[in-house]
Records
---
Amino acid sequence: MTVAPEKTRIQEGEVFQINLTLTNTGENPINVWKMSEQTSYNILFFNSDGSMMPYLWVNSRIPLTDEDLTELNPGESLYSTVDSTCWNLTKGEYTLNAVYDTTSPDEDIQKPYWIGRIKSNNVTITVE
């Protein structure tokens, strides 16, 4: 999983896009959860002291089903783009990353699928 913001230097209050890519680097096709913010992945901002910035919107959801899966062949990727409006980033430096996590035991999925947790690369964001 990789995270790539459209820019790494922004003005306070500026909204920017955050691009995510999940790639099957294995040799076999696998079923994975479709890319869905606060369901299959979370985007995280940490300030300079290491504390996580609060996410300003909370998603309630029902258990996932087989329709929430997609087959990802070797070398194929899933993509998602979100904007930064759910975080109040004031002046300073932040570390941005994303976590794709399918370890929830409370799903209603019958098909086999990949279960695990992947953390993306870290990107430094400067707010001026």
---
Amino acid sequence: MKRLLLLLVPLVLADPAIAFDGGWHDKEEKPELSTDQSETLAKYSEFHQSCMDIQMTMWGEVAELMEDLATAHCYCEYTKLEDLKSITWADKNAADIECANQGTISKKEAFIWWALPLHRQRLEDEQE
């Protein structure tokens, strides 16, 4: 029993641990992310290229296999955002989540077949 108590004494006397806070020491130093920033939607081809860069980076080594799904996802995001006068981070996030849900494994093929022809048509319309 004395041995057990001797082992517990250093634990009781030790300084309490501080929870990891992401590496910031003072709350005032943390960068503030504003969700109030608004922007307008870019041309489809510009939006699509930026979105595809993100998607392809996210998929890494299997990116080429996922290209059709990523294209469908980007088209879906654009269509969710195009009627908004200004776009916030929350709008982008909601569109991303909704499109990701539409492209789940059980619906992936239908999602791709829906989006790819519309994607191609948009690009053609933009070039005219």
